[in-house]
Amino acid sequence: SRELAEKHYGVHKEKPFFPGLVEFITSGPVVAMVWEGEGVIASARKIIGATNPLNAEPGTIRGDYGVSIGRNIIHGSDAPETAQSEIALWFTSEELAGWQPTINPWVYE
Strand, helix or coil at 93? Predict the structure, then answer.
């Protein structure tokens, strides 16, 4: 919804691109998801690529599919605190499932 988009990107409310950002994010379907795991924010941001698709590496989502910075096709939280507030905005606790892969003790110290 427009209200959810405005809350999600509220930090940019006073910036000139805010109305266009809200219009874009509400112009079609959105797939919201939560990733979790060791170093997940850093890993996700590597997969996502630089905000400006022209600066994003080939093989990243923005590098392969992005065209302009205002239409960069994907959002990822930049810090655990941001992730927590964004998760709370998009999901109820009942919609989140906790899961611990059985391989974790063999992979992580």
Answer: helix
Q: What distance lies between CA 81 and its chain's CA centroid?
A: 13
Q: Which helix (H) or strand (E) holds 19?
A: helix 18-25
34-93 to CATH, choices 3.40.630.30, 3.40.449.10, 3.40.50.2000, 3.30.70.141: 3.30.70.141
Distance of alpha carbon 66 from alpha carbon 54, whole angstroms: 8
Query: Considering 73, 75, 85, 90, which one is annotated as catalytic?
Result: 75
All structural domains of the chain with their residue ranges: 1-30, 34-93
User: Does residue 8 have an active-site annotation?
Assistant: no
Q: Structure pTM?
A: 0.82
Per-residue pLDDT reduced to its tens digit, 64-104: 999 998 887 899 999 999 999 999 999 999 999 988 889 98
